[in-house]
Amino acid sequence: MIEDETTSASFSDGLVSRRSALRGAGVIAAALALGTASTQAAVAAVPARAEQFVALCESQKGKEYVWGAAGPNSFDCSGLIYWALAQMGIPSVHQSASLINATSRITTAQGATTRGALLYRPGHIAVSLGDGRTIEAMNPANGVRYGSATPSSWTAAGIIPQLAAAPAPNPPAVPPRIAVLGGDGQAVVKEGNLWESWQNMGIAGKQVVVEGWRTGVLTTDGVLYVKEGALNAQWSVLFRGATSFTMSGQRVGVIDTAGTAWVKEGALNAGWTNMSGAVTQIALDGDRVAILGSNGVASIKEGNLLADWVAQYNAAKSIALGGTRIGVITSTNAALVKEGNLWESWTEVAGDVAVLTLTPDRVGIVGRNGVASIKEGGLSTGWLGQTPGNTTDIRLVRNRIGVRLTDGSIFVKEGTPYEAWVGQLAGKSVSLS
What we know:
- By secondary structure, the chain is mostly beta strands.
- The protein has 7 helices and 36 strands.
- A hairpin with a 2-residue loop joins strand 24 (about 315-320) and strand 25.
- It is globular.
């Protein structure tokens, strides 16, 4: 099986030409003109935008398959879908698992008979023609061609919401959240502005994480509870025997008591994928998974969960992810950051560092002297001191900065690094989303 965009597609994420999204109605009209009268009659009830999407994909039949390509002359499997949606002004991502995760799920049997539905199996994705066939960028030997929509050949199917007969309602905006593990171990969360009241989650633990609509608490006996949606939603038990966990988007990662890292993607009841053994830290961001081995080797994979690992640094104490940025604290306590693809060179941003955190445009550190500092913009910009020498942790997300002091006090500011701090509930840890 040819897998798409594990490593190579990551290069194309930034390189796939956004120009294709501007090719306009002329390309769409030409693509639609390629459909035969018999095909059009057979799909008269198909929503117009779904038919438009299928016609665009079919218009590329015969083009060559190139791993990581998204047109106009060659494609990989997700690149074909990404390109077709771009012609219609629909934003998407050039990665097969992310494409299927963004759909409204149906069964693979339904997908085989639904024109314009996406059909997925690990490492590959195709477009159903609704008649037992697919149009897909198949592999280097076959290029873009018709294939089989046999349900047993696929593990998931879904409908792109923007192609439905009626526009899908916009999902509710995710409110910013702050989670604190109080001094008594109780997890509490607030959502909205910095002055909102706290809601007790009803579970005591050793770690709490908020990420989008998800809230997770890890108990002292290793049970991971996660809820999705409103803060009063029901808990789901995701894992037993965990020592730490993290969340990003639709992914959840844990390290178990044996030191093995696991990740699940999609719904909370999805299965776990074994990442690696002998792991002391796991980090997630977007389509990247980072681990720190007990031997000090920091490694990353990007794309689907079965992609290969790429070693990043051989003597690290910790690893951090933020957008296209990767950071490590070395065995000599230097903070190194690289930006872009996995093979970029490192930039040393600070020395004598105890904590490092990243966002796409900010770097936060706590020095071993307890001073928290921020830089924003490029990696060569100057540092802005945030706290005096009494800080144990710093967290960054969107436009918020959170710190925890040695006495357990937690402060959060919102906006620029020059804003005033707003005190929060004192506790053992803080998480922001």
